[in-house]
Design a protein that fits this description.
The complex is a heterodimer of chains A (344) and B (250). Chain A has helices spanning 5-34, 42-83, 90-96, 100-127, 134-160, 170-175, 181-184, 192-215, 220-250, 270-291, 293-296, 302-338; strands at 186-187, 190-191. Chain A is mostly helical. Chain A has two domains: 5-165; 177-338. Chain A has a two-stranded antiparallel sheet with strand order 1-2. In chain A, a hairpin with a 2-residue loop joins strand 1 (186-187) and strand 2 (190-191). In chain A, helix 1 packs antiparallel against helix 5 (134-160) and helix 4 crosses helix 10 (270-291). Chain A is flat, with a radius of gyration of 22 Å. Chain B is of the alpha/beta class and 250 residues long. Chain B has a single domain (13-248), classed as P-loop containing nucleotide triphosphate hydrolases (Rossmann fold). Helices cover 26% and strands 22% of the residues of chain B. Chain B contains six helices and eleven strands. Chain B has helices spanning 71-78, 101-107, 126-131, 141-154, 170-182, 200-215, and strands at 13-14, 20-21, 26-33, 48-55, 60-64, 86-91, 111-114, 188-192, 219-223, 237-242, 245-248. In chain B, strands 7-8-9-5-10-11 form a six-stranded mixed beta sheet, with helices on both faces. Chain B has a three-stranded antiparallel beta sheet with strand order 4-3-6, with helices on one face. In chain B, helix 4 (141-154) packs across helix 5. Chain B is globular and about 50 Å long. The chains are: A mainly alpha (344), B alpha/beta (250). The interface between A and B is medium-sized, with 12 and 20 residues.
Chain lengths: 344, 250
């Protein structure tokens, strides 16, 4: 394993965040067992005091987790390619990590998503003096712990098992997936132009749904609709970005690499693009959880949830706008400059 | 007179012509407190035991007792500077002692506290010390200064408004501390030995201020071991704290 300071910082922060979460989960477990808001006994009062300390610890763990995620992505895309022979971007680095790399990213995404939902719910909880969601949030923490344990284990495994002597071939992975030019023009049997069309339709639908959640009266089915649309949008947006829009950043056709977008020669466009994409992926489930009967069914919570859902919908709209601007903007600029689209 | 009430919540009280306000009563429900690690076991470990009392708005309540009996601790519990070991404090029917820290802090903007130690900020002027509780409220510095000056004048402390607080005598510091507690017209006022360093004239001035606050509906709780409190303060109720229990004084 390389002893690059950023990787050491990532692993140390990950471990520290997990230890914080482990400590917090002990209190969360006690809250799950013994929480009784009507009780004024010493155990309940101690739990109330501890719940605030626990929430602070989890916020720190979340902060560390965000830092390590950003650090890890930066390391994969901009540091490790120099150390892995043959790697030019994150694709080669993940190849050197073997199966550990994608597994690490998936576990990390799951943990991040749970952290995000907990954070949003805790915000609702802390907005009310009697913190009525404390018990529910404690259960979220218990769910978070195994996800973080898996993410931490996968990170250690992927980074320590990385091969620095074995050369990789980045572009072979990208180009070897196509047997013919026809294959390159299609994804999952559907033409890339159709994916762009679907992206346009879903973006409009997502925008309308998020706008309705933001401006309209709170209705549970709207949140559900937004979530369903978001699942489709995330998939289609990722495909449209990699298969069509990325070409305008790279200036070449059929270079279907999601990681090259993070390189400085492409103006690090991957960071804002994938952050906006990730933001939608994290925020929409939080809106859905907030709209469930368990959370919004509590009379005191309902108005706060409504306010938070509106704000979340506004943030989703902003993230979609940023994504569209950064993905479609270069394509439009290209069309205006050269009078043609990069298709073929 | 001590009124017992097991865990009840006060309903909103309507006052005046269509004006809606909440009752400001403070209520202790089974309030028990023990300092951690004080080396005692069992009931003796608790400084205050199962206190049930209501401190109504519009009245001045005197809590008396010997040194070390827990008067200051009780006041600190009433305004949520300490968390109870058991039981709760209700303000206008709301369990404020069990609220999360941010909400307790926000509620405490409605509280004026005259501490036994004055806790003035020595490097600020007297005026700046007094207008600090007004800063989270509406208005601007000009209005805050005017209100602070007015409050200082009421307590005969206007003449040293521009002086750094660190240069004041003990009695002057206590008057400034009282002015700071009263300047925001709080709904809840607790005063812990507020005239320990005062002559009778200034003590009476403070007594009048506390009476005015009670007359506008505030809860006023004064802790003192001074048996001659009648000389400066007209109290409505007198409670005595003995052996961790609160009872009507004889």
């Amino acid at each position: 394993m390389t002893r690059h300071p950023l990787l050491l910082a990532v692993l140390t922060s990950d471990t520290l965040g997990f230890l914080l979460l482990l400590g917090a989960s002990i209190t969360a477990f006690r809250i799950t067992l013994h929480w009784d808001p009507q009780d004024t006994g010493s155990r309940q009062l101690r739990l109330q005091a501890l719940s605030e300390t626990t929430a602070a610890a989890i916020v720190w763990a979340f902060g560390l987790y965000v830092f390590t995620t950003v650090g890890l992505v930066y390391a994969i895309t901009n540091i490790l390619p120099d150390l892995v022979p043959g790697a030019m971007c994150g694709t080669g680095v993940l190849q050197a990590m073997r199966s550990g790399g994608p597994r690490m990213l998936i576990y990390r995404f799951v943990a991040l998503s749970l952290f995000w939902t907990w954070w949003r719910l805790e915000k609702v909880n802390r907005a009310l003096p009697e913190a009525p969601l404390t018990s529910f949030n404690a259960r979220c923490v218990l769910l978070l712990l195994p996800a973080c344990a898996l993410a931490l284990h996968a990170s250690w495994q992927a980074l320590t098992a990385m091969e620095y002597q074995q050369p990789v071939d980045c572009c072979a992975i990208i180009y070897d997936q196509f047997h013919s030019l026809g294959d390159a023009r299609r994804t999952m049997g559907v033409g890339n132009t159709a994916w762009v069309g679907a992206f346009g339709v879903l973006t409009l639908a997502m925008t309308a749904a998020a706008w309705a959640v933001w401006k309209g009266r709170r209705r549970r089915w709207l949140s559900l609709l937004l979530t369903c649309l978001a699942i489709g949008w995330l998939l289609v947006a990722a495909i449209a970005l990699v298969r069509s829009f990325a070409a305008y950043h790279y200036g070449v056709l059929h270079h279907y690499c999601p990681w090259c977008l993070f390189l400085p020669e492409h103006r690090l466009a991957g960071f804002p693009l994938w952050t906006a994409w990730l933001f939608v992926a994290l925020e929409v489930p939080a809106i859905l959880v907030m709209s469930t009967r368990v959370v919004s069914g509590l009379p005191a919570v309902a108005p706060v949830v409504e306010g938070e859902s509106r704000k979340a919908a506004r943030r989703v709209l902003l993230a979609i706008m940023i994504f569209v601007l950064l993905a479609v903007g270069p394509a439009v600029w290209w069309r205006l400059q050269f009078g043609m689209w990069l298709t073929g | 007179m001590v009124v017992s009430k097991a865990g009840g919540r006060n309903p909103p009280r309507f006052i005046g012509q269509g004006e809606l306000t909440l009752a400001t009563d403070l209520e202790c429900c089974h309030l028990t407190f023990g300092y951690p690690h004080d080396g005692q076991a069992g009931a003796a470990a608790y400084l205050l035991r199962d206190i049930q009392a209501i401190f109504p708005g519009g009245q001045i309540t005197l809590v008396s007792g010997n040194n070390g009996v827990g008067k200051s601790t009780l006041l600190h519990l009433l305004v949520c500077l300490l968390r109870p070991t058991r039981g709760e404090v209700l303000a206008a029917g709301q369990p404020v002692s069990r609220w999360s820290a941010a909400h307790r802090d926000h509620w405490r903007r409605r509280v004026g506290i005259i501490f036994q130690q004055d806790y003035l900020i020595d490097h600020l002027t007297v005026l700046e010390n007094v207008f600090l509780p007004l800063v989270p409220q509406d208005g601007g510095p000009r209005q805050w200064r005017a209100r602070a000056m007015e409050q200082l004048a009421r307590l005969n402390a206007a003449e040293f408004a521009g002086r750094p607080a660190g240069l004041l005598s003990g009695g002057q510091r206590q008057r400034v501390s009282a002015a700071r507690a009263l300047v925001a017209s709080p709904d809840y006022i607790v005063a812990d030995e507020p005239i320990a360093h005062q002559d009778l004239e200034h003590a009476r001035g403070l007594g009048r201020q506390l009476r005015e606050a009670a007359d506008r509906g505030a809860v006023v709780v004064v802790a003192a071991h001074d048996r001659h409190v009648d000389a400066w303060l007209a109290v409505d109720r007198h409670l005595s704290l003995e052996d961790g229990m609160l009872q009507a004084a004889s």
